[in-house]
Amino acid sequence: MIASPYPTSTRWLIIAPAAFLLAFLVIPTAVIVQRGASADAFLNVISSSGFRRIAWFTLWQTVLSTVLTVACALPVTFVLSRFSFIGKRLLLALVTAPFLLPTVVVGTALFALLPSQLHYTAFAIIVAHVFFNMAVVVRLVMPRWSQIDQELIHAAHTLGASTVHTFRTITFPLIRPALSFASTAVALFCFTSFGAVRILGGPAYSTLETEIYVRSVQLGDLNGAVAIGIIQTIFLVGVLYAWTKFGRHHTSPLTVNVHAARPTGTAQIVLVSCIALATGVLALLPLVAVAWRSASGWSHVLSRDTTNALFVSARFAIVASLIATALGAMIALAIAYKSTSSQLLETITSLPLMISAVTVGLGMLITFDHSPIEFRSTWWITPIAHSLIAIPLVIRTVLPVAQAIPQDLRDAAATLGSSLKDQWIRIDLPLLRRCLATAFALSAAVSLGEFGATSFLTRRTSETLPVSIARLLSRPGDTQHAEAFALSTLFFVFSIGAVYIAETARATRTKTH
Amino acid sequence: MKKFSAIALSVLLFAACSGTSDGGSSSSNGPVTLTLLAHDSFTPSEGIFDAFTAATGITVNVVRSGDAGELITKAALTAGNPEGDVLWGVDNTLLSRALDADMFSSYETSNLSSMNESVVQNIPGHEVTPVDTGDVCINYDIAWFKNNNIAPPMTLDALTSSTYANLLVVPSAITSSPGLAFFLATVAEFGETGWQDYWKALRENGVLVVDGWTQAYSTEFSGSTGKGDRPIVVSYSSSPAAEVLYSNPPTDVAPTGVAPLTCFGQVEYAGVLRGTKHKAEAQMLIDYLTDIAFQSDLPLTQFVFPVNAKATVPETFTRYISRPESPLTVEYDVIAKNRATWLDEWSTIVFK
For domain B2-133+267-316, is the CATH number 3.40.190.10? Predict the structure, then answer.
């Protein structure tokens, strides 16, 4: 074991988040599992042909969605990493925005875009997954790809290596860790996909996650739902643990600061503009489709119900982000400070992504039902559920930065007699500030878009925006649908604008440094 | 010391949490507020409970959460320690689930005497009280059939004929309560061993199965707002009346028709939730829900029929509705026994 710089204070970095996860994730899950687990149901589920069909679909759509997402994301990642051109920030915003959108909105957009023959098909689900998750690949791979020293590539070319060969032997090995983590994240999101499948798949296509919902909520078959939940969690934990154990590739950090160059030569200009334009248009199409169908809905958008939903969503997002950022950062720091057993810790803290959200929601309902912990009808139980899903993302965002804080800095400060508190305020916090802000924004996006299980905890008196949109879509009447499309358009424009502004701010800041 | 502060922190966290929740629970002295749990389709006139509050001093807070299935699931999970005092919206297709979960406390309202024997017979123990009835039937787009010179289907059997190939859209029996009702209609019509072949034939004839009633009726059906591709849909016997009342521009001719021989009879119930702290007040609310004023409000706000024979049903409502004389039905205990296996079988036939 490596000696920790903060032998005692790291302890509370673990204890507080652990207590939170125990109280709001582990215990509710245990309670619902205890209520619903039965060996008979387990055997029934495994032997039913329905389950096998659903499990098979979940698997193949995950693999296909992931492969296609990576395939669609790589060209644009290449262009964004290597070149600077007019509209680059806008393209980045267009590609990133879908991930910040509620799945309901993405579903709605694709529903508006695709011809009716393609509604309720596996194709529609996979398109939604690709559209939604491209941002994950671009965002995770781009920082690494843009740091590859161009000299290496030039040298390879000079020595006669073909473009393909250069990619295979230089670029690919260097971006592999980021690409491998991004694909795992995409696969995890596709595997547990709920909103897109519910909206676009219709009743014929279910993933394990939607099947858990249908069984527990609509059929009242808690035993069957819990059995599937257990199978899903065991499978995902197994896969993720195997990945952290064998699949991860540690490489030396790339610290070269390379500035993206303008494309030179006709071939390069054509290639870059084709990729940029094609991706931009494809990313923009759903927005256009939604805006097109929202025409008659704008007069209702600021109705009392909608503004109320807006405030509820905003309040939930702020509370959820505060909790998730604080607790996620604590875990990330704990992992960074003491490097032992971090693999296990990382797997454990990814649990919220692997335990069926529907199960947790039901568990909360029956766990917090007695005084003094009668929380189920309080408003803040929903943001807490949101924060559970955001915590793993916060950890992933903060951890690399926290691990990069040089130990020498702290040692020097300690030698000069500064207290732990001072070191934290003067060294760690300023270095972490930007990634904490990113983590906060990411959590807010998760909370704003959450439409899984927690829509189940939501009561109609405190309806969130995605739940509002889903309700409007599920009611008859053109005006109601147009209103849902108008709300979705707002969401789209707002997300693209937010990413664009963030990128511009970052660019100007980098320049002034 | 550090350890202590960590423990103190987590204790504080919990204390802060539980502090907030105290405001939510109602105290036993002072004016009582009842929580009425309902599904999303519970949409009575605004201010409908004002008369109840004026007469009794009790305020009613309506909490809607999802569809009927979701409502029953939550109530079943919290049986004995309910989230509200009264529940509105369990129908005869879901009744077995509610009774199995033992979530209601029995109450016999005096309004039962004004109800038809057929709606009361299912519940000798009075765990729940009937509140309204309706029928789930095949609806068709009158204009489409006229334009194409085809007679609309009048029986369930007709739907498997090639004349009606690729014309029918139905909500899923698993995720939709009218979908389940339609499925049960086919069980009643073709028997417990005959419906499988019927659904195989429907599937071969190109039936489209969607998630819920709204997708079926408002998106895929050609006779309503969505202007979809399919002129035959599963909906309610009251749907033509709704089309007329909400049409823009106004009309007095219904654009859709109902096939009465295909109807499944639905009865909806309300009940006092077992474990409520306000049992007496909750029972008063059941009285109010089954009394003339509230019952007369039902047709035009929720497109269902009152169970109280003294309630008035407006002429604008009855003019466009043809109710079946004896709707198809399956006894709720038969549903209870077979539902899980039937639905498993059904989904394999329809989706495989």
Answer: yes
Per-residue pLDDT, averaged over B113-133, amounts to 91
| Strand residue runs (E) in chain B | 33-38, 59-64, 86-91, 104-105, 129-141, 168-171, 208-210, 232-236, 256-273, 305-306
Taking one residue from A and the other from B, the number of pairs with CB-CB distance under 8 angstroms is 128
- pLDDT (0 to 100) of residue A307: 78
Q: Under an 8 A CB cutoff, do A218 and B228 touch?
A: no
Residue A254 CB neighbour total at 10 angstroms: 16
Nearest residue on chain A to B35, judged by CA atoms?
A: A377
**d(CA A467, nearest CA chain B) in Å:** 10
Contacts of B166 in chain A (CB under 8 A): none
Residue B128 near residue B106 (C-beta atoms within 8 A): no
Spatial separation of the C-alpha atoms in residues A164 and A169, rounded to whole Å? 9
Q: Kindly report the pTM of this predicted structure.
A: 0.81
Biggest CA-to-CA distance, chain B: 87
Nearest-CA neighbor of A209 among A367, A382, A406, A62? A62
Contacts of B38 in chain A (CB under 8 A): none
Mean pLDDT value of segment A203-222: 86
Do the Cβ atoms of A203 and B20 come within 8 Å?
no
Largest CA distance in chain A: 75
pLDDT in tens, B217-240: 887 899 887 778 899 999 999 999
**CATH of A48-152+160-289 among 1.10.1040.10, 3.20.20.140, 1.10.3720.10, 3.40.462.20:** 1.10.3720.10
> Which of chain B's residues have a Cβ under 8 Å away from the Cβ of A11?
2-3, 6
Domain ranges of chain B: 2-133+267-316, 135-265+321-351
Q: Report how far apart, in Å, the C-alpha atoms of A414 and of each of A335, A407, A423, A427 are.
A: 21, 11, 8, 11
What angle, rounded to 10 degrees, do the helices at A222-242 and A172-191 form? 170
d(CA B188, CA B334): 11
Interface of B with A in 65-94 (CB under 8 A): 65-67, 69-70, 72-74, 76-78, 81, 83
Side-chain half-sphere of A436: how many Cα atoms within 13 Å?
A: 16
What per-residue confidence (pLDDT) applies to A506? 67
Q: What is the mean pLDDT of chain B?
A: 87
Q: Return the half-sphere exposure (C-beta side, CA atoms, 13 A cut-off) of residue A383.
A: 21
Nearest to A203 by CA among B212, B180, B202, B349: B212
In this complex, which of B9, B212, B352 lies closest to A53 when CB atoms are compared?
Answer: B352
DSSP, res A168: I
Residues of chain A contacting B209 with CB distance shorter than 8 Å? 202-204
Best of A32, A221, A474 to mutate (most B CBs within 10 Å, chain B): A474
The span from the CA of B174 to the CA of A214, in Å, is 8
E-strand ranges in A43-111 read none
* Secondary structure letter of residue A462 according to DSSP: G
Q: What is the ipTM of this complex?
A: 0.76
Give, in words, the CATH class of A10-36+298-474: mainly alpha
Write the pLDDT tens digit of every residue in A389-431: 888 888 877 887 787 777 777 778 878 877 777 777 888 888 8
State how far the Cα of B284 lies from the Cα of A296, in Å rounded to an integer: 44
pLDDT in tens, A329-343: 988 888 877 654 566
Q: Which residues pair with A56 in a beta bridge?
A: none
Amino acid at B187: V
Q: Considering only the top CATH level, what class is B135-265+321-351?
A: alpha beta
Q: What residues contact residue A445 under an 8 Å CB cut-off, 6+ apart? A: A99, A100, A495
